[in-house]
Amino acid sequence: MSKEIAIIVDGVSKDFRLPHEKIDSVKSLFVNPFNKNRKKFEIQRALHDISFKIPKGEFFGIVGRNGSGKSTLLKIIAGIYQPNEGTVSTNGRLVPFIELGVGFNPELTGRENVYLNGALMGFSGKEIDGKYKAIVEFAELERFMDQRLKNYSSGMQVRLAFSTATLLADSDILLIDEVLAVGDADFQRKCFAYFKDLKRKGKTVVFVSHDMGAIREYCDRAVLIEKNEIVFSGTAEETAREYTRLFLPDVYSAQQNEENQKKHNEDKIRNKGKWGAGGISISKVTTEKGVFNQQKDKYILISYTVTPDKRDYEDELMLGIAIKDGAGRVVCGTNSKIAQFDKKIAITNKTKKITATWKVPNIFSEGEYSVEPAVDSVTRGELLEWWDDAIRFRVINEQNTPYVVSPAMSLTISLS
Questions:
Q1: Can you list the domains of the chain with their CATH numbers?
Q2: Dihedral over Cα of 149, 150, 153, 155: its sign
Q3: Three-state DSSP state, 194
Q4: How far apart are CA 229 and CA 70, in angstroms?
Q5: pTM above 0.70, yes or no
Q6: What are phi and psi of 143, to 5 degrees?
Q7: What is the pLDDT averaged over residues 212-231?
Q8: For the ranges 188-202, 215-229, 330-344, which has the lowest average pLDDT?
Q9: For 379, which DSSP code?
Q10: Mind listing the pLDDT tens digit for each residue in 183-213?
Q11: Contact 38/24 with Cβ under 8 angstroms?
């Protein structure tokens, strides 16, 4: 076993035998001593062919639904269960935090339980004396150490058990089976800060959890167990995403939408507002001037140049445009198909550039407007490039109205 490897799990399988009849008294044994069902049992496959390696100093996660075999695997690594097949090798002293508080006596005080557990772990009274203050401070139970354990809340018991086990045990490998689930948030953060400190010291942590937030935050790698087999292995982020995809589809869908929107926004920032599938570049957008007077300028001419990338195929394009007001609302828009442009906009590898000029009636209310050109591939049915806020212009309207557009209107009135 390499000195750089903390744990090797190789082809581990585990079965349990489930009897069909339960004998819960001597009487039941004598009443029906020849019951054939007594010898019948069912084989439950808890784990099947589990294999992975954990390097020293890694925070390793194990995730899966209830009944998938996570806790059984942790107990096999701890040596509590023996596998039916396969082997587990560990390199270093291992301490399992699977059932904290085992061995605690509810009739004894917190102080007495610390010394009792320390003695069970092989520490002398003098050694426990040297660590007692640190244990109590970490558990934040200074005022309660002389009370009987049965008067502690479940959270207080976990804090005491965890503090006793971690601060007394000088371990290289820690196995944690969501034992902190009942602790309060502040204590959980303290425990994870302690784990990170252990990691900096080269210790190894194996962490079983349903909390994908904790897996993402603390683990380096993780495996996903489903139906007693490893169905996914990767980084903590990848494994948490796969867990969410399989078991929380609604949450996964919302996360994907959020990630896609974030990526979309990042692409626009990186490309200065341009986004799309690519293959086309809108290189220049112009208007004949920057300020238009609606009473004098009946039209606004907007031009943009499209430059195709080098390609070994022909394509048919659809050119479009949108105009937004100062609040970012789309005022109007169109494309070459809607405008019934009568020529096919076909390009080849010899096409160097295309210049499109739109003649837009100036019916806008007073204010600032932005132009957003776009190019679609008709052949492939996808947006090649959209340019957000490519250029701005201003409209002056002496007969301004509070509406989005202000077309010239005439009024005729007849009285009779």
A1: 58-83+92-255 (3.40.50.300), 276-396 (2.70.50.60)
A2: positive
A3: helix
A4: 10
A5: no
A6: -80, -10
A7: 91
A8: 188-202
A9: T
A10: 677 777 787 788 778 778 888 999 998 888 8
A11: no
